[in-house]
Specification:
The protein contains 5 helices and 5 strands, in the order αβββαβαβαα. It is an alpha/beta fold. Strands 3-2-1-4-5 form a 5-stranded mixed beta sheet, sandwiched between helices.
């Protein structure tokens, strides 16, 4: 079995997620966690679910496990909230800690992907389609995870 650090990518390392197989993306937030899933060929991302986290509580690992058991992903992409100036702040450190914990608990390879602007792009897409975001935050979080995962997949399929 690999050590957690061998499967956790840094911004300079290539992701250690194998092909083919489904990839799960996690867009971590303080209240809601958006999930997205790729197809087995790692070409298309689609929204999966939104998990809830109560303030000050741990990541809802049991809720995530249900999705892991059902979809059997070959790896996980965790959104990394990079600051606008390109540095990593406390939120990024928290995302990296989440990735390390997920690698330990699931033994799946973890890749991090810059999540800057994913929520803004998801909100823009909803508005462009004539939708409203009021009262639909869970859907927006799923869409943000989908945008994140699609960018990751596209970068690997160039």
């Amino acid at each position: 079995m690999a050590t957690p650090d061998e499967n956790v990518s840094t911004p300079d390392d290539p992701p250690a997620i194998p092909r083919p197989g489904r990839v799960l993306a996690i867009d971590p937030g303080m209240k809601r966690i958006g999930l997205a899933l790729s197809d087995p060929t790692q070409t298309i991302a689609q929204p999966l679910a939104t998990l809830s986290r109560r303030a000050g509580k741990r990541f809802p690992l049991l809720s995530l496990k249900t999705h892991l058991d059902e979809h059997q992903p070959v790896g996980i992409v965790v959104g990394l909230p990079i600051a606008p100036d390109g540095t990593e702040d406390e939120r990024a450190k928290s995302a990296r800690a989440l990735g390390a914990m997920l690698n330990t608990k699931t033994e799946l390879p973890i890749a991090f992907w810059d999540e800057r602007m994913t929520t803004a792009r998801a909100l823009s897409a909803v508005r462009d389609l004539g939708g409203h975001v009021r009262g639909r935050k869970a859907e927006v979080d799923r869409l943000a995870a989908t945008v994140l995962l699609q960018a990751f997949l596209d970068s690997r399929n160039r």
